[in-house]
Amino acid sequence: MTHQFARRAAAPAFATLALAAAGAGSPAFASCGAASCTLTTDRFVQGSWDSPGFYLDLRAEYLRQDQLFSGSHKIGADQVNEETLERETINRNLVATLDWAFGSNWAASVRVPYLDRRHVHDVLPDTPGDPVVTERWNIRRLGDVQVVGRYQLPLQDTTAYSISGGVKLPTGSHTVANEDGAVAERSLQPGTGTTDLIVSASARHALTGRDALFAQAGVMVALNSRDSFRPGHRIDFALGGVHQFESGWSAALQLNVSHRGRDSGAAAEPDLSGSTSVQLSPGVNVALSGATHLYGFVQVPIYQHVNGVQLVPRWSMVVGVNTLF
After folding, report:
1. CA 265 from chain center: how many Å?
2. How many domains does the chain contain in total?
3. How many degrees, rounded to 5, is the angle at CA 164 between CA 162 and CA 168?
4. What is the percent of the chain where pLDDT is above 90?
5. Which of 69, 135, 138, 139 lies closest to 313 in space, CA to CA?
6. Strand 73-74 to strand 106-123: parallel, antiparallel, or no bridges (unpaired)?
7. What CATH number is attached to the domain comprising 55?
8. What is the pLDDT of residues 275-288, one digit of tens each?
9. How confident is the model at residue 15 (pLDDT cuts 50, 70, 90)?
């Protein structure tokens, strides 16, 4: 199988996220407490790794977290014994990834997220009968930028492998306040304030000229703390497949597993941070013209477990466009 034939089978394998998060040429790493989708739109996964030049991916994410969970169970507001009752977090993220392949093996990418985040919670009174205080934040800021390098091993018949490494930079603010001057908790901020190491590995196998499978695993770990806060480590795994139809569109499916450790430090909430989720992500991809594609995915949780009490999404959505030039 030629590289071009392998690309044709894999190019529609769109799904996000990762990292991150914050996330994303790597997995779109980011917490779903202040969230971005865990889908991966990695250029290597899509099979276009051997075309020197630039690849641009622009995607919009929507995640509404309005469901309270304790452990792995949904709970009601009357079951919360914390000082603060979380009501809702709405994340509308725009993520731009520019990837440059300067040969058939080496590539580098920069991922820049813009976060539009709305959060509402109630501060419960110490004395019964006293009024409940509702606090709101509307955060519109750039998030933490990721810079990642990638090495793709030479194609092994119908299977390809790659390894990636890079950093998440502390470019996003971690001191955003609302109109009343209340600084948002650190897990809601557009940036963590820390420099994080990102490492991932990917494999892609072409089954036929129209079908391909891929797997990707990644880790993100903070290398330092900032203002008494250190985000928990992040581990992501994605397994997916794609089928190309003759009419210029394809169907894809990903299984995304994400685990985040507890945050630490005096400014953190270790008892109310950290989670594990398993999500199923079906989607479609449509060729617009030439090397440009439009894609859309829905991400549905099939298992969620949180430490303490946290808000989780019922579903999330990603739409985007990418092109080679």
Report:
1. 24
2. 1
3. 160
4. 63
5. 69
6. unpaired
7. 2.40.160.40
8. 999 999 999 989 88
9. very low
